[in-house]
Amino acid sequence: MLRLESLTKRYRTGDLALSEISLAIPAGQVVGLIGPSGAGKSTLIRCVNRLVEPTSGRIWLDDLELTRLGRRGLRHARRRMGMIFQEYALVERLTVMENLLSGRLGYVSFWSSLIRRFPPADIENAFRLLDRVGLMEHADKRADALSGGQRQRVGIARALAQEPEILLVDEPTASLDPKTSRQIMRLLREVCAERGLAAIVNIHDVLLAREFMMRIVGLRAGAIVYDGGPDGLTPAVLTEIYGEEDWAASSDLSDTGPSPRPGVPDTDELVGAL
């Protein structure tokens, strides 16, 4: 179980990104984070694995308090948390298989990682994961030759290669067309169910959240304003989360504006998440 207790993040500028967030997410539950741009969704996800350092509060993964860990302890704890990025964070010049195996970097020695030498069991598992996400025939293809949907599938397989207990997913469909978005969300739900994984999914499309999320947490100005089932997203609740809009008459309940596209994580950030 993941537990957040009074999680707060204030930046040096004084901006308050998260305010006293408390959540408990049991194993197997897939939670969607929704809210307008700047509500704190990405910050919350990145505070969990401490790519962003919280200002105060506590984060627990089962009995392990993540917020008290030093660098070495955090490196080991991040094995238990698979991160899936909006911009895929693949190494373009490497093959699909090489990118997937980077999910095992936290389990091999520095020298083995440097020359990309992995145990046979890791390689066998990587082929199983490629088959599961429908990319077996693309194993030797360079990442820069893939479509957006294929790249996101590699990102999912890479996260699963860590054998995590929870997936942290930051806007997985922001760059995808509607059909591919549904396929990716369906795949995430299926792999979480198969492996008993919890997941926190920052998602800007409310229609997708309603269809594929088991639980919805709505953020506004860094605070939780809704926590419940998808069926509870009434026009009144959506107004509380996003602001005034004729939600009852609208067939499109996605965010009121496009979400900013953060830059591709740098190498240190990517390796830190593994």
Which properties best describe this structure?
single chain; 274 residues; alpha/beta; Rossmann fold; six-stranded mixed beta sheet; four-stranded antiparallel beta sheet; 10 helices; 21% strand; globular
| Name of the CATH architecture | 3-Layer(aba) Sandwich
What is the CATH topology classification name?
Answer: Rossmann fold
Q: Uncertain segments of ≥5 residues (pLDDT<50)?
A: 253-274
Global Rg: 18 Å
Q: Structural class of the helices, strands and pairings?
A: alpha/beta
Order of helices and strands: EEEHEEHEHHHHEHEHEEHH
Number of domains: 1
Main location: membrane
GO molecular function: ABC-type phosphonate transporter activity; ATP binding; ATP hydrolysis activity
Keywords: ATP-binding, Cell membrane, Membrane, Nucleotide-binding, Translocase, Transport
InterPro entries: AAA+_ATPase, ABC_transporter-like_ATP-bd, ABC_transporter-like_CS, ABC_transpr_PhnC, MetN_ABC_transporter-like, P-loop_NTPase
Structural features, described:
34% of the residues lie in helices and 21% in strands. It has 274 residues and is α/β, with parallel strands linked by helices. The longest helix is centred in the C-terminal third of the chain and has 18 residues, at 178-195. The two termini are 19 Å apart. The model is unreliable at 253-274 (pLDDT under 50).
Please render the helix and strand layout as text.
Layout: E1 2-10, E2 16-25, E3 30-34, H1 41-48, E4 56-61, E5 64-65, H2 71-77, E6 81-84, H3 96-101, H4 110-114, H5 120-132, H6 148-161, E7 166-170, H7 178-195, E8 198-202, H8 206-212, E9 215-220, E10 223-228, H9 235-242, H10 267-273
Helix pairs in contact: 5-6, 6-7
